[in-house]
Amino acid sequence: MSEIIDGLTPALFWRCFAEISAIPRPSGHEEKIARFVLDRARELGLSARQDSCGNVVVKKPASHGKDGVRSICLQAHLDMVCEKNADKVHDFLREPIELVRRGGVLMANGTTLGADNGIGVATCLAIMEERSLQHGALEFLFTIEEETGLRGAKNLDPALVESTMLLNLDSEEEGALYVGCAGGRDTLGKWAASREEVPAGMSAVRLTLRGLKGGHSGLEIDKGLGNAIKLLNRAVLRLSEMGGRLSSIDGGNMRNAIPRECGALMYLPDGTLEKAEALVATLDATFREELACIDPEVALIISRQDVPGEGTVLDHTLQNRICKAIAALPSGVQHMSADILGLVETSTNVSVINTTETGIELVTSQRSSSPSRLDEVVETVRAILELSGASVEVSEGYPGWKPNLASPILNLAIQCYRKLYGKDPEVKAIHAGLECGIIGERIPGMDMISFGPTMEGVHSPDEKVYIDSVGNYWDFVLAVLKSAE
Q1: Among 30, 129, 145, 146, which one carries the catalytic annotation?
Q2: Are strands 176-181 and 332-336 parallel, antiparallel or unpaired?
């Protein structure tokens, strides 16, 4: 892996990034990366603690002449989203991420890169190690399970952190300083299984929807990306009109990602396969036309399927309820902000569907910077699911983060950016959940901003980080630490 990062600057940062890329760190399995951070801190002679939840804090003393400077906390999350292409064989629990360098970007080979939030973790590790930097006392907060419910931040022991200023290193646009974020909740619908044997005179087919880019269901919800579950359901509905019966449907992997792939096993009346193939070909062309500018590789495929033994299908009424519910569910931008131009205020995403032994489960995700609008969209989704006969669970969710344009750390960052680049950064809010909202609740009065280098395609195998942008981001981080008083 060293040859991939050879010649990249800052060299220490990229070495740290390569090191953590070799350590499996799916959400809920951060033990190895947490141990790596603790061991590295002790090797460097720095104090380190871990709370009962698994979050880690490392402390680095002030450099010479900076003892009177107020302490700053740099914060990143240890886990990463684990997505891969269908044809990629990769065990995220055991195998390292395979880095790939393509011109000015760094990617992974068929999987997510983990720059979200490996960039932040590598930044902290490199600053922990570099002795020549000028800064006041520093704390490095590494949280767990950010991608699957922000569990680390929600259970953070406030006594672990002494700083009153925090740099969250988990944003994805160079030159932007984020000072607010959306809150969010997940809404889960479950339909209890009601199955019967496959009626006589029917043959199995496999429907597959693939080729979509996918992406972050907050940051990229406004791009018009295809949703594999919603698209495949359109085909299932049309085949149902021909007498097709649904046996199983599975798609999506992460609650906070736009699903890239979805598949269904159906049974069709004998003699209708040719008609079904023509219908699928028409829908495939329709999807390609609809998504030509954003998801041109979309593909809907039907194939004969040999099913060993006697299969089962969903009860006809249940099948109809589920498919109609998916069709009715909103998915995408619901409201734009009236306060900040171009900011998505409220959205919802149909995220994951799975066939289980007990029935069908559908996960959806709602976000909004308006608490009342968040309640509204959650109730819309809940109502549709309940009307279709599903039992519904709504998660506790996470709070938004209200902007504070008078923030001292924000003003310091703006001054540093202006000195470095001769222009002002953009001050923005983000349509995604940041740990800042929860940290602000856990540690009242914490003064925070969030920023990072330019990344694209996070939460998908197209995830990439722009190498030159990382250099600019690194210089900016060091300037803020040096200028703090």
Answers
A1: 146
A2: unpaired
Count CB atoms within 10 A of the CB of residue 478: 19
Stated pTM of the model: 0.74
Torsion sign, CA atoms 170, 27, 20, 45? positive
Is 79 marked active-site?
Answer: yes
Phi/psi for 347 (5° steps) reads -150, 165
Burial profile 112-143: b = 16 or more Cβ within 10 angstroms, e = fewer: bbbbbbbbbbbbbbbbbbeeebebbbbbbbbb
CATH class, range 2-182+400-483 = alpha beta
Q: pLDDT per residue over 224-272, tens digit each?
A: 999 999 999 999 999 999 999 999 999 998 898 999 999 999 999 999 9
CATH architecture of 185-394: 2-Layer Sandwich (3.30)
Query: Taking the CA of residue 83 as centre, how many other CA atoms within 13 Å lie in the half-sphere pointing to its CB?
Result: 30
* Cβ atoms 139, 57 nearer than 8 A: yes
HSE, side-chain direction, 13 A CA sphere, residue 134:
9
Report pLDDT for 93: 97
Residue 149 or 22, more confident: 22
- Whether the ω angle into residue 461 lies within 30 degrees of 0, i.e. cis, is no
Question: pLDDT per residue over 64-104, tens digit each?
Answer: 999 989 999 999 999 999 999 989 999 999 999 999 999 99
Which one of the listed residues 79, 284, 295, 447 is annotated catalytic?
79
Burial class, 306, CB count within 10 angstroms (exposed 0-12 / middle 13-18 / buried 19+): exposed
The pairing of beta strand 464-466 with beta strand 105-108: antiparallel
Q: Does 67 qualify as catalytic in the annotation?
A: no
CA distance 140 to 130: 14
Query: Structural domain boundaries of the chain?
Result: 2-182+400-483, 185-394
Amino acid at position 160, single letter: L
Reported as a single tens digit per residue, the pLDDT across 308-362 is 767 899 999 999 999 999 999 999 999 998 878 888 999 999 999 999 999 999 9
